[in-house]
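Q: How do we represent a protein-ligand complex in a form that can be generated token by token?
A: Start from the inputs.
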Amino acid sequence: MNQLVSTTGFSLAAYGRLLDALRYRGYAIVDYEEAEPAKPQLILRHDVDVCVQNALTMAEYEAAQAIRSTYFVLLRSPLYNLLSPENLKALQTIAGLGHRVGLHFDATLYRAEAYQDAIARECEALENLSGTTVDIISFHRPAQALLGYPDRLAGRFHAYMPRFFSDMGYCSDSRGGWYRGAPLDHPAVDESKALQLVTHPIWWIAEEHETAIDKLDRLVASRDTQYREALAANITPYQEVLNAR
Ligand SMILES: [Zn+2]
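Then emit the structure tokens for the protein with zinc ion bound:
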């Protein structure tokens, strides 16, 4: 069966249980700069690939439990507009809750020679939007060549530097499941070593019975409604047609 169809069991409560289980094993939640690969430390990274509002829900859930994490947002995604009033407010609220804002950088949009300048520009824009310092980067769907890239980029740490990616454990919910093994089964957790836990809020703002496809279908339906409402608010004849339906 298609893996996207088969995975369930993700929700905010499930996320909370996962963090509880890691903390029960002695893990402390830390920031990128503080993390020491040989210690039972946990970096919480959220890549906001599709929905800023889902990220806000997750950020509020974490803040209610005194958890601070890092939210990496895209500036050039076709899936959301960070400057829309509700998304910009959500971004600033996430920062205001004490979370860190990082740049989620889509390197496929640039030539490799242009990465440094592009990252500097995007970080500066994100700093202006979020009102916080942006000094950490994660790559969106990185090419193999960027995994383990050892140097800073535009003077900033990135989440695939060896210290965060290969010196410590790395576990991601990409595609809506733990396809490379669940965090609690990770060899680093077995050895009480540090772990960078990568989650995408879209998969967790859900009911546990929902598959990844269910979640995406629900998102599309809600975006469809918002799109119609935005069109109606701007184009009176469309409003009249919608009202008549
Ligand atoms: Zn991504």
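The first strand starts at residue 28 and ends at 30. Residues 211-245 form one domain.
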